[in-house]
Amino acid sequence: MRRLIPLILAFLMLGAVFAIPPVQQPSPQQQTQTKEQTVYITKTGKKYHTATCRYLSKSKIPISLKDAKAKGFTPCSVCKPPQ
Ligand SMILES: [Zn+2]
Fold this sequence. Notes:
Layout (H helix, E strand, L loop, with lengths): L3 H16 L8 H6 L4 E4 L5 E3 L11 E4 H6 L3 E2 L8
Parallel strand pairs: 2-4
Antiparallel strand pairs: 1-2, 1-3
The site of zinc ion (ZN) has 6 residues, from loops.
């Protein structure tokens, strides 16, 4: 009977491992819910751009859309970023 005890312990430990809930993945919903949108500004310009705009070849400074508007940047007429 003595050999049974480690066996039971092993089963208990296995049970404990399986009882642990799976690691919670960051839900993709959270990302879509954030309204914070990133736009890009340049060192010299007073307009903000989307990441792919050709005007960003010289400088590309990420900034949140909210901040860009707060600082007086206006949307670029070429790449048409979100307003
Ligand atoms: Zn642009």
